[in-house]
Automatic annotation (TrEMBL):
Domain (Transposase IS116/IS110/IS902 C-terminal) ranges: 80-153
Molecular function (Gene Ontology), one example: transposase activity
One GO term of the biological process aspect: DNA transposition
InterPro entries hit by this protein: Transposase_20 (IPR003346)
Family annotation (Pfam families): Transposase_20
Protein name: Transposase IS116/IS110/IS902 C-terminal domain-containing protein
Length: 270
């Protein structure tokens, strides 16, 4: 697929997400009106049912356009679209932004382009007034992929669960206290409700929280997925794969075969 076609895919996916965001915002607004008894639930459902169906249909039409553009690409048909949690919109954004896997001689370069590299020992973040040297859209897409894996389950969700539990076990074994955010009392940033000592006043900036562990496990899972995408795509294109970057960079004792992560048949949007 040429660059112009890829740019077209990106535009369509962005419009799809714009439509989705508008639908969700409208739905949440209506739920608040119903909850506050400003609008009766029966009246709302009767009045806006057709509008909701049309909004959903618009999203589906965009998805069909994306699928028509990307189907037939070897990386899409043979691997990417067959991964649970990756549909036309996420798959389309990935291939359209990466464009040519030959540009990334190592998986580390792909991670960096997706904003998943490390600067001064910390995850890369965009700084005010400075131009970032990675694709912000790919970084956002990577985050969405992580959320999708958690939602739908499957092999990548299992990787997340395993690493999350490993971090919890490791830190508790080191004598750390793992704090959990207090969702009921927003004035308290962290509260010792889980996995640790009770009735202990939380520090202002605790080192270990369930939120931090979640983010670390999600980030690691997405990096493994991207390493699989990099390996498979380059193999399909007949490009060298090189050394075991995932093992070197992420510390796996054994390599994970990306072809064994396939769970579903190639998806077609009707």
């Amino acid at each position: 697929m040429d660059r112009a076609s890829m740019e077209y895919v990106k535009v369509v996916v962005r419009r799809l997400y714009d439509a989705q965001k508008l639908r969700i915002q409208s739905d949440l607004r209506m739920q608040r009106l119903i909850r506050d008894e400003i609008v009766l639930k029966e009246n709302a459902e009767k009045t806006f049912k057709k509008a909701f169906e049309l909004e959903t249909q618009i999203e589906h039409e965009y998805e069909k356009i994306i699928w028509r553009e990307i189907k037939g690409m070897p990386i899409i048909d043979r691997w990417l679209i067959r991964i649970r949690g990756i549909g036309p919109r996420l798959g389309g954004l990935l291939v359209a932004n990466i464009l040519d896997i030959e540009r990334f001689a190592t998986v580390s370069k792909l991670w960096a382009y997706c904003g998943l590299h490390v600067i001064d020992g910390k995850a890369a973040k965009r700084r005010k007034g400075e131009k970032c040297n990675w694709s912000q859209e790919l970084k956002t897409t990577a985050w969405k992929i992580g959320q999708s894996f958690l939602k739908v389950g499957g092999p990548y969700r299992e990787l997340y669960d395993t690493y999350r539990q490993y971090l919890i076990t490791r830190e508790l074994g080191n004598g750390s206290i793992i704090w959990k955010g207090d969702e009921k009392n927003r004035e308290v940033a962290f509260a010792p409700k889980a996995l640790a000592v009770k009735d202990l006043k939380p520090p202002k900036l605790p080192e270990w929280t369930l939120g931090r562990i979640h983010n670390m496990a999600t980030r690691r899972t997405v990096k493994i997925f991207l390493s699989h995408l990099w390996q498979v795509w380059r193999e399909i294109e007949g490009l060298p794969v090189g050394g075991p970057f995932v093992k070197e960079r992420l510390g796996h004792e054994s390599m994970i075969d990306p072809w064994k992560m396939i769970e579903v048949e190639a998806t077609k949007v009707a």
